[in-house]
Amino acid sequence: MSTVRVYYSRVDQDYDNYSLYYMPGRHQGNPDLLDPDHIFTEEYSEAPRVAVDFTSEGNFGYVDINLNGAGFCDFFIRRKDYLVDLDDTATYQPESIYWMTGFIYSLQENLYDEVYVKENKPYLYKDSFFQGLSPMAITLAGDESSIDSDDILHEVVEHGEEGEGWWWTHYKIFNTHENSTTIEIPQSVLNQILEQEDMDTIMTTIMVYLCGKTYTIGEDMQLSIDADALAAEKADALQVIDKAIANCLYKLNEVPADFDEDAFLADVDTYKASKSEVLANTVDYLKECLTTRPNLV
Fold first, then answer.
1. What topology does CATH give the domain 3-134?
2. Strands (E), 135-253
3. Three-state DSSP class for 80?
4. Whole-structure pTM value
């Protein structure tokens, strides 16, 4: 899903006088992939890198951002004649350009192929109804003390300390550029993650778990990661989930050809009670995988 289309909604529908700027941003998108021809040479990721004009379509303007495998980018929208471009020799913090640009948004390449932005709102919306939200990014976190409610957003530490082994115990879903909802990773999922060495596979495992789940955040809006969010990675996700199912069945001493999936899902608790307590997380994870798999085929 290398190209993400950003639709912009303004009350006055004046899109000719605005441009969208995108850059590597806070989640450190790869600058060489965002700008493969090295046209823009600003040292600091917060400085503007690529400016794109809007194309009008109905009541919206839109821009296609080619992330080109960079993973992430940030963007903002501003008037073409408003002040001047940021000095490419200055050291800007992200907050210091709010007064020039309005809200800053983040994009994660593998989460969607289009998003909607509304004038004077800090969110990425799923569609033109401006109700459901798409996440700006999903990252791993390690702060066990963060507890989120439906309308309180938290910031937590994003990276572990070197030498501590596996440190992440939570994932956080960025609702805006700055705020995130922090969710504990279930032990059954952690067990699967600990068996992986490749970070891409680990993140796909997390995405498979999140698929189909919905969270209520501020302003009573629903943020969710649906099957469409995995569209570009469905083949990889399906491979990961099939491997996880096979691994679970092996641990549970089940013969795949003889395993009755329907009977298992109909009464997971009874099945779990028939197994050793040390296998409870494996049973839970098998249920997650079997429930999610239909969304990927």
1. Immunoglobulin-like (2.60.40)
2. 137-141, 170-174, 180-184, 213-217, 221-225
3. coil
4. 0.71
Report angle CA 222, 225, 229 to the nearest 5 degrees. 135
Amino acid at 203: M
Q: Could you give the maximum distance between any two Cα atoms of the chain, in Å? A: 70
Compute the distance between CA of residue 130 and CA of residue 116 in angstroms, rounded to an integer.
8
Angle at Cα 146 formed by Cα 106 and Cα 179, nearest 5°? 20
**195-246, pLDDT tens digit by residue?**
666 777 777 777 777 877 787 765 566 777 766 665 556 677 788 888 889 9
Enumerate residues 6+ apart whose C-beta is below 8 A from 131.
125, 221, 222
Residues in Cβ contact with 28 at an 8 Å cutoff, skipping those fewer than 6 apart: 45, 72
Domain residues of the chain, as ranges? 3-134, 137-231, 234-296
Q: State the Cα angle at 67 between 168 and 213, rounded to 5°.
A: 45
CA angle 234, 7, 183 (to 5 degrees): 50
Dump pLDDT digits (tens) for 118-160.
988 889 999 999 988 888 888 888 754 444 433 333 333 333 3
Closest CA to 108 of 137, 67, 68, 65: 137
- Which token pair is 294? 């239909």
How far apart are alpha carbons 124 and 106 in whole angstroms? 9
Tokens of 224: 């969710």
> Could you give the CA distance from residue 159 to residue 129 in angstroms, rounded to a whole number?
35
Q: Give the up-direction half-sphere exposure of residue 241: CA atoms within 13 A in the CB hemisphere.
A: 26
